[in-house]
Amino acid sequence: MRTMGDAETPPLLVEETIAIIGVGLIGGSVAAALKKRGFAGRILGVGRNASRLESAKAAGLIDACSTNLAESAAQSDLIILCTPVNLIIEGVRDISATCRPGTLITDAGSTKGDICRELSSRFAKGVTFIGSHPLAGSEKQGFEEANPDLFQNRVCVVTPNETTPADQLSRLNAFWELLGCRVIEMTAEAHDQAIARTSHLPHVVASALVSLLEKSHNQLTSTGFCDTTRIAAGDPDLWSAILLANASEVIQSIDELNGKLAEFSEAIANRDATTLKNLLQLAKTNRDNLGVKSCDRPAS
Amino acid sequence: MRTMGDAETPPLLVEETIAIIGVGLIGGSVAAALKKRGFAGRILGVGRNASRLESAKAAGLIDACSTNLAESAAQSDLIILCTPVNLIIEGVRDISATCRPGTLITDAGSTKGDICRELSSRFAKGVTFIGSHPLAGSEKQGFEEANPDLFQNRVCVVTPNETTPADQLSRLNAFWELLGCRVIEMTAEAHDQAIARTSHLPHVVASALVSLLEKSHNQLTSTGFCDTTRIAAGDPDLWSAILLANASEVIQSIDELNGKLAEFSEAIANRDATTLKNLLQLAKTNRDNLGVKSCDRPAS
């Protein structure tokens, strides 16, 4: 794997231009992390709202900005789409004709199956798309919430396939490592199956739980309820798109959860303390195994 | 409501002896908070394990300790049971004969219905039991984790009934206020109905969610999963007792959650983005309404 300090291969810092399409929390944090970690090239912010982009530029996050995707792509060496998942395929369509040979395109979407099936073989020879999903985020929105340490010590899943050029995969890995990530390679399908259980189902569950809350009970919530439901404050548009893009795995995981909840209900109804303790002990063991480190938050 | 600075009524600090039965995380934090906030009387730690109690005494949390409940009760002005909920009624039985007139007994259990039905009219004239539930806790255990600020700015629900003497209720409120709590009075039944939704169901859900986690997916969890499942690390014995003590409300709340999850599933299966966004928006609105303040953690 190519790393920053490897004299045999050109370091990532020689990238002349990295285009970030969608300068929100994630895109803004990519920019902030690149700046903080000494990226010496140019960061081009691309989006639909010129005044927001100008604000991000004024804030020093990006060096230049544009609302013209095709034109931006033509001047970029590496392009990362940080748009909502339902706009990634469309965004790549807008740049697919103008990329130069050698350009590497990736994304930061929470689902990978549809995107990779559609995009991994979309491009002309010499242009490569590889899916990425950095496991970092926040219920907050907007580049104003960008955090240069958002990716620090986080996992980033990359989803190459059998046609992915090895040198471009190394380049992508080096990019995420520069941002502070630990890179894991998986297939897009394995990613979606796992992330349904570790991210999408938790979002549905947190949302369902807080939906049941009567306003008069707000004052009776404590840190447990707050933590369990925190992610439900996420953007409904973004999350609707994510859940629909991973529909079958999410539905199946809801079914699995229902089965587990039924075990709890039955044990409680039967006053079966032994079974109930066993259910709670399995949960505790799994939770304890996660450790503390993976749950540390970045400084914000 | 009587407060510390009210010259008309004797301040709580004249309490000669407060007995804490069960010196774990909660009992230890009660002791630590009393010490930090200038309680001038004696703190008597009571429990079954003499060497653990001696350790708590050596750590400066309690002034004296005893494994004899009846004897401890006889020398105490205020007694708080901080044992697991399934041991509270039994614990009070052990002290009921020896309390002096004027003694106020309370608890810190997460369920109130069974306990208050059993205990509120148990005592001889002049001895009062009133249920309490401070909405503060941690997945950690043991007096070593005691935190003098655990109750700071937390709600404490107290559950008097129509026979509760007003002066003893004022005294109980002053006790919790001394520890930093905001006191809310409710019936035991209303408490259990609400806390099923704000605490017990979230514990079941967090446990079910993390039970589904395959070990190979541990590295694919992020802060969202960690927060959503944090409370599942709680003690299985304690939580089994809590869920069984509030069985009917917990079972009913699981049913309510299943209904809400089915709405999510159906919207996703139908690719109905509008309904899905509405479901997510209701959740976001409820979560945003909780505010940040109620979710702040005590410094630990």
Structure description:
2 copies of one chain form a homodimer. With 300 residues, chain A is an alpha/beta fold. Chain A folds into 2 domains: 12-186, NAD(P)-binding Rossmann-like Domain (Rossmann fold); 191-289, 6-phosphogluconate dehydrogenase C-terminal fold, CATH 1.10.3660. Chain A has helices at residues 25-36, 50-58, 69-74, 88-95, 113-119, 166-178, 188-211, 223-229, 236-245, 247-269, 273-290; strands at 17-21, 42-46, 64-66, 78-81, 104-107, 128-129, 131-134, 155-159, 182-185. The first copy, chain A, has a 6-stranded parallel β-sheet with strand order 3-2-1-4-5-6, sandwiched between helices. In chain A, strands 7-8-9 form a 3-stranded mixed β-sheet, with helices on one face. In chain A, α2 (50-58) links the parallel β2 (42-46) and β3 (64-66). Chains A and B meet through α7, α8, α9, α10 and α11 of A and α7, α8, α9, α10 and α11 of B.
For the structure shown, list the relevant keywords:
homodimer; about 300 residues; alpha/beta; Rossmann fold; 6-phosphogluconate dehydrogenase C-terminal fold; 2 domains; 6-stranded parallel β-sheet; 3-stranded mixed β-sheet; 11 helices; about 45% helix; globular; disordered N terminus
